[in-house]
Amino acid sequence: MSPPRVFEGKLAIITGASRSFGAALATHFASRGANVVINYATSSSDKIAAELANHLSTTYNITALPVRADLLDPSAPATIVNAAKAVFTNPTATPSFQIDILINNAAVVNAQPIQELDVELWDQTFNINCKAPALLIKAAFPYLPHDRSGRIVNISSATTTWGLIQQTSYAGTKGAIEAMTRVWARELAERATVNSVSPGPMDTGLLNGLPEAPKQALRMYNALIPLAKERPGVDSEETLRLADEIGGRPGTLEEVAGIVGIACLPESGWMTGNQLGASGGGAFVR
Predict the structure, then answer these.
(1) Domain for residue 3, yes or no?
(2) Using CA atoms, how far apart are residues 273 and 262, in angstroms rounded to an integer?
(3) What is the pTM of this model?
(4) What is the C-alpha to C-alpha distance for residues 103 and 152, in angstroms, rounded to an integer?
(5) Whether the Cβ atoms of residue 85 and residue 143 lie closer than 8 Å to each other
(6) Torsion angle, CA of 268/272/278/284, rounded to 10 degrees?
(7) Which residues form the catalytic set?
């Protein structure tokens, strides 16, 4: 049974959307009627982004636009918005172009002990995880709705509260995006709600090959998370394998994308400046 098309005719811009969780986000919104801009960073993703856009367009009768723009480049946000404007402008509509939904998903993830902190990697992590979302919202600002119906979601991380080792730059930048979310919720109150979603471990492939020290920490945390218990006969074999390694099952991409979608529903208009957990009850880990 197809999901209801609750985002029919809306335009969603999603960064880091050609694969993994970003592709799950694009699929979630497209399957519910939204036109989607699939941002990605490098030419190596040209083919997969084009294939995803074609699949979403034909499967869900929407328009999906792949846009290559590396968010390490400060001009990338304007490139994304201008590409969307070129395709989705409707001269007969008022307004002729509007960005209804903006998902800041692109991120750099790394693990380094503090004594080995690499300055270049630190700068790259900050630029993608913090500066790029700010610049993209700046570029999108002229095209946000004027009736509070816009929806902006910044993807954060449960690492902001869990204190996982070797996560100085990643957890630090995700904590910063949560702080900026609250600022933007006030600044953009008449245009859009602004919330963050904090996933716990997800089945993205990043858990494969994780060093033993972070795995040990995840085992400790997963013991406290209500929904982390694996379900033989329900969960996939890969999920069960990961659960055995990290002491509990990770969230599926679709589960977490669904929570992002909730924050973008028309009915979510009385919620802004919030941090939404998407970790199976990871808020118990304090």
Answers:
(1) no
(2) 15
(3) 0.94
(4) 6
(5) yes
(6) -120
(7) 156-157, 170, 174
